[in-house]
Specification:
This protein is α+β, with helices and mostly antiparallel strands. The chain has a domain of 225 residues. It contains seven helices and 23 strands. Strands 1, 2, 3, 4, 5, 12, 13, 14, 15, 19, 22 and 23 form a twelve-stranded mixed beta sheet that branches. A three-stranded antiparallel beta sheet has the order 16-18-17, covered by helices on one side. It has a two-stranded antiparallel sheet with strand order 6-7.
């Protein structure tokens, strides 16, 4: 079983938006005002979209645009959980889950087994799955000072009702990693995050031929024997992995879209397959200017990564860029492609499609 990861880096370009809000603003004269999410680094302000919000957009895009049947959510007092069935629901597989639950123990006739006090005995059937898809928050590359916009509700009789909101324009970066060996592959040994399937679900899946057993190359039991993993058919696993990446072509989302609609699809993307879990592209976007207010792609940083991690890459690296976005970097990117035989430069959507074609040949 190959240990391969898809490593992705994206840049978004948005204007006059409020993609992810932080609740009531405490730094305004308006009683009814909303603040956007921001964080500080080296004394400067950067706006961001939480990793959870990005995942919400992602899952929604997979459901609406690629026809995924998503797992149902159950609310139980102060907790909520999905169906926790990654065999049936692809989002449970790719996005992970935790379902803490207990089942009533029953005898051979199906009757509840009682304890000495006459109460039904239960057994722990908690299942958890570490998400094969991991992602950062989406954060502005350069420092940003959001502007407070005054708005009002004035269609009614009488005085208008004022409210405020913070808006900004920014180039924003995000990274993600998809564990290709983990997609469609489920463990069931006693370790947090690795009890993916209940014994009942795994037995039914094996009996019905929905999964087959394969050996875990990395984890062994106390006797030195490889643990067994339950694995879906390759065609299903490939589709789930490629769908996840293709969803970026039409991903949409963000707060206040009614009057601050924004295109949150990537305007620049790098997709590569690596033999390690390390994400190499974290610092290829940088800022400049007196106040770190200008965002740019650092071509020298990309060149350094391609040299330093050349033994970690598997197959070609696809770079996609939308025309009209940072066109001043076109010549440098073209020169970079000529330096490295394993680099392809094209439009964003074509880069996604070409990488997914390569991915079909890389998954075992």
């Amino acid at each position: 079983m190959k240990n391969l990861k898809t490593q992705g880096f994206v840049l978004l370009d948005v204007d006059v938006v409020a993609l992810n809000n932080a609740g009531k603003s405490n730094s305004t004269k308006f009683d009814n005002a909303v603040a956007t999410k921001k964080i500080f680094k080296n004394g400067k302000s950067y706006v961001y979209v939480s990793g959870q919000a990005w995942r919400y957009w992602w899952r929604d895009s997979l459901q609406r645009n690629l026809g995924w049947e998503v797992s149902l959510i159950t609310r139980d007092k102060k907790i909520a959980f999905t169906n926790a069935n990654p065999i049936k629901f692809p989002d449970d597989d790719v996005f992970g889950y935790m379902k803490a639950a207990k089942d009533v123990i029953r005898d051979i006739d199906g009757n509840p087994v009682l304890d000495s006090k006459g109460k039904e005995k239960t057994e722990n059937v908690t299942v958890t799955r570490i998400s094969p898809l991991k992602n950062t928050a989406i954060v502005s590359v350069a420092s940003v000072r959001p502007e407070e916009n005054w708005s009002s509700m004035a269609r009614q009789e009488g005085d208008s009702v004022p409210y405020g909101k913070e808006e900004y324009s920014a180039i924003m970066k995000g990274m993600f990693s998809l564990d290709l060996a983990q997609v469609g592959t489920f463990s069931n040994y006693n370790k947090t995050g690795y009890v993916n399937l209940s014994e009942k679900l795994q037995a039914e899946a094996l009996e019905n031929g929905l999964v087959t057993e394969v050996e875990d190359n990395f984890i062994k039991d106390a006797k030195g024997n490889p643990h067994k993993l339950a694995r879906l058919d390759k065609g299903i696993r490939v589709k789930r992995a490629t769908d996840t990446i293709k969803a970026l072509k039409n991903i949409s989302g963000g707060a206040m879209q009614t009057s601050n609609m924004a295109d949150v699809t990537p305007k620049f993307i790098i997709l590569a397959t690596t033999k390690t879990g390390n994400h190499p592209f974290s610092h290829i976007a940088s800022n400049s200017g007196a106040y770190d207010e200008v965002a740019e792609i650092n071509i020298d940083a990309i060149r350094e990564i391609l040299n330093d991690y050349k033994d970690d890459f598997e197959g070609k690296i696809y770079i996609g860029k939308r025309a009209g976005f940072m066109d001043e970097k076109n010549d440098e990117l073209s020169k970079l492609v000529k330096e490295f035989e394993n680099i392809e430069l094209m439009t964003v959507n074509t880069a996604i499609d070409k990488y997914c074609e390569q991915l079909e040949t890389q998954m075992d």
